[in-house]
Amino acid sequence: MRCPFCRVDNDRVIDSRSIDDGANIRRRRECLSCRRRFTTYERVERQALSVVKKGGVREPFDRDKIRSGLNIACGKRPITEHDIEALVSAIESECYDNYESEVPSRAIGERVMELLRGVDQVAYVRFASVYREFKDARDFVDELEPILASDRAAASDRAAARMMAGGQGIVAPRASGPGGAPAGERPAEAAVEPRGR
Ligand SMILES: [Zn+2]
């Protein structure tokens, strides 16, 4: 590797470490001529993957686009940069593993939603609202209903378990948010930020 300072091609590697889950290697090198140190990154060259958009337009696969969609959906949610980066990497790996040279944008969008749903329901509905181009409140309700139904099923399972265990049979109603809906089930929070894509 030619030294970026003195241009002499004579160095030794002083440290190698695997980064990004082994996808890249970072090497710290020392120039044997001028003794200055520099860093190189090595990664496997993969065949370029194109994303086929609705209408047939193709563009290069771009993890930044996936990340920015996730950043918008996850704004102010308890999701770290690291979590988002892990989601982006998971989706990228799956695309490269499952598609030869072209991946439909729909497949990426659906997969993002699937993964997001397991991470944070608000972020999931936000992403869905942009991705599925929700037109009105009804679309939100349609998207939320299966989530709320499974929450209710889980809650009634817990209540049944408490009854079986001989605990209190009647549970005091939870504190309500404005409009009377239990705070945890209000879809209003999910309705913010439909812009950005
Ligand atoms: Zn040098």
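^ zinc ion complex. The helical segments are 63-73, 81-98, 105-119, 121-131, 137-164. Residues 3, 5-6, 8, 31, 33-34, 36 surround zinc ion (CB under 6 Å).
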